[in-house]
Task: inverse folding
């Protein structure tokens, strides 16, 4: 027996399992479902969408590598979203705001150039990069110290 249900109506059932609320909704109107989903989907689906398109693809056997790069991906996307928000508030035209791919490329270039001109490099200095050609004077070596004997 099929009943006539008005387009746009829904039936929602809520249950609880192990202190977790579950909700199942049956909609009559597909257009309404998509509209409601898009209005309330939140940032998780949007973040997953961006990460799916611009993921850092590095294979490793270490289990810690995958969560690290996932967090790095999320950080880059959040930085881009902040960049967009700040530039929109400043009144910058949408066409003049970088797309995510361009933002990632610019960020990578900037990070590669970071400290390339730094004078405080770690490790042993190279002879080619040394601007001062004078060799620093060495301290004279002192011989081993003689300790008094412990014999009485």
Result:
């Amino acid at each position: 027996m099929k009943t006539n249900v008005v387009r746009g109506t829904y039936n929602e059932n809520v249950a609880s399992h192990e202190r977790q609320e579950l909700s199942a909704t049956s909609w009559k109107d597909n257009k309404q479902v998509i509209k409601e989903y898009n209005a309330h989907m939140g940032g998780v689906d949007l973040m997953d969408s961006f990460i799916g398109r611009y993921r850092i693809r590095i294979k490793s056997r270490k289990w810690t590598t995958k969560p690290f790069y996932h967090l790095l991906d999320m950080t880059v996307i959040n930085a881009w979203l902040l960049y967009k928000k700040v530039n929109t508030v400043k009144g910058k035209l949408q066409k003049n705001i970088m797309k995510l791919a361009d933002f990632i490329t610019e960020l990578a270039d900037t990070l590669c150039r970071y400290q390339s001109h730094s004078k405080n490099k770690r490790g042993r200095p190279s002879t080619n990069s040394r601007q001062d050609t004078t060799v620093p004077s060495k301290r004279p070596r002192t011989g081993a110290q003689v300790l008094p004997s412990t014999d009485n």
About this structure: Residues 11-113 form one domain. The chain has a mean pLDDT of 79. The longest strand covers residues 10-17.
